[in-house]
Amino acid sequence: MIGSFSAEILKLRKRPATWVLLGVALALTQLFGYLLPYSSWLTSDQNFQTQGLDPQSVLAGTLPGELVPTSLGGFPVFAGALALILGALATGSEYGWGTMQTALTQRPGRLAVYGGKLLALAASTLAIVLATFALNAAVAGVIATVESRPLDYPSLAELAQGIGSGWLILGMWCGLGALLGFAFRGIALPIGLGVVWVLGVENLVSAVADSLLTGLRPLRDLLPGVNAGSLVWSLAPGGGSSGEPPPGVIDAVTGGRAALALGVYVAAFAVAGAALVRRRDVV
Amino acid sequence: MGEQLVETDNLSKTYGAITAVDRVSLSVWRGEVYGFLGPNGAGKTTTLRMLAGLVRPSGGSARVLGDEPGSPPALARTGVLIEAPRFYPYLSGRDNLRVVARYAGVSDRKVEGALETVDLAGRGGDRYAGYSLGMKQRLGVAAALLKDPELLILDEPTNGLDPAGMRDMRALLRDLGERGHTVLLSSHLLGEVQQLCDRVGVISGGRLLAESTVDDLLGQAGLLVRAEPMEKAREILERLVGEGNAAVADGALRLRTGPEQAGRVSRALADAGVTLTELRPLERSLEEVFLEMTGTERTER
What we know:
The complex is a heterodimer of chains A (about 280) and B (about 300).
Chain A: H1 2-14, H2 16-43, H3 55-60, H4 67-72, H5 75-96, H6 99-104, H7 110-146, H8 156-184, H9 188-211, H10 217-220, H11 224-235, H12 255-279
Chain B: E1 4-15, E2 18-24, E3 27-29, E4 33-37, H1 44-51, E5 59-64, H2 72-76, E6 78-81, H3 93-104, H4 110-117, H5 133-145, E7 151-155, H6 163-178, E8 182-186, H7 190-196, E9 199-204, E10 207-213, H8 214-218, E11 222-228, H9 230-241, E12 246-249, E13 252-255, H10 262-271, E14 275-282, H11 286-300
Parallel strand pairs in B: 4-8, 4-9, 6-7, 7-8
Antiparallel strand pairs in B: 1-2, 1-3, 1-5, 9-10, 11-13, 11-14, 12-13
Helix pairs in contact in B: 3-4, 4-5, 9-10
């Protein structure tokens, strides 16, 4: 499996789409986590993101102390969608280009090839999380310095919890994308369906369960995005010091239950993908 | 004959109501170049896919190098190129081979040698997406050779190559055979198969119609005779080779006898005062035999 992992890492590292997705993820985090709030603080103009919020709390959200909630704020929805695209690209392209045949006719067996791919995707999502935290930590440090605020970063335990939670969330969405890529043997349908689910269906079901059909809440609480949002909420109740939770961050289930649910999803997606890879003909 | 590297026993594959491969039993022996012939849709590629472990048989069984097709021990010793090369378009040819090398557990150092073998060393840094069809095909062969495999399964390896490329590929395959590699090769190019292969299997409609050496498949050679007067020559030669072994076609007499009888034929005709204008060996090409066999099969179906 080490050889498969190494081959997958080489493919992901050299693939332009991987870097585009990483760049978009970082850019979105910077835009919504730092640029818009900080520009609002600097200019005293309120934008859609800071409307009605205390300017001091808006600034606090950009300082090192809020590194974890600010970094994770976009994970349930935007970064999650990007991770799903990464997973779908990594698996679906193998069918589109016919390279699944190339991979499966070398030394490793099917499950070893599959395992190498999953490990490489896990490493890639961890890299995205670490890059996000690292960049955000640097930007927050610069803002704190400029604003003459203390460089009070979260403790290592809090950072580890945040990074682990982010990895779990992106790993879950990436796993779903990979499974869809295997299931549909392409990239267009998995990405289309996946993004509609992440950005549309989850929010719709949540909104309906919150207002019109409260009987749907037990069902809502099982959804992957809702659990991802709940996990982030558990680390920054009420949206952190900025006071307004980002899209997809909700108080639906406890953090422990959300983490467990996400772990179950990751395992289920991995097992379902393995069954597909192991059984199906490659033509 | 030695060790069997590929053995199938009533190997079958069905897709719904369609039988792509129908109880095929073939064997490939160590050190031979085996030609797998058949028209389009005959079941060649499906059979090769089953031997590479890409497609699971619906019935029967197969062993490749003594193991299950597609198992790591079998794959480790088998180089495969089926239908068309499949590589990552955004990677260079060299990086594509590095990916293959990592899957195969082969050192990256072998990549340069493989590129040189197929004359792509100078273009190894170019993106695969920009390769011509022939370059892609050569890269596919390089990937198949990367493991220095005991067995090569090549499906139409000369597809897309220009005449010089085809000549080089034939030389490469001949060299591989001489160096003791076992090659299972499918091809539409029957002249190529006739030149390269020790044995052939002919498949049509999913069924293996024949499996033998090329010589056996071509059958007994004959003699073509033109003489004046033809009727008198026919009478004399029928007495010589036996009735039913001489037939007139297209103004010539075709004798079902070996070329070693040419001297006797010439002498008999001269003794009888018949003027011999042409006498030469008559050999059927593999193409003629192939078309005869698969044409018959199609008619039956």
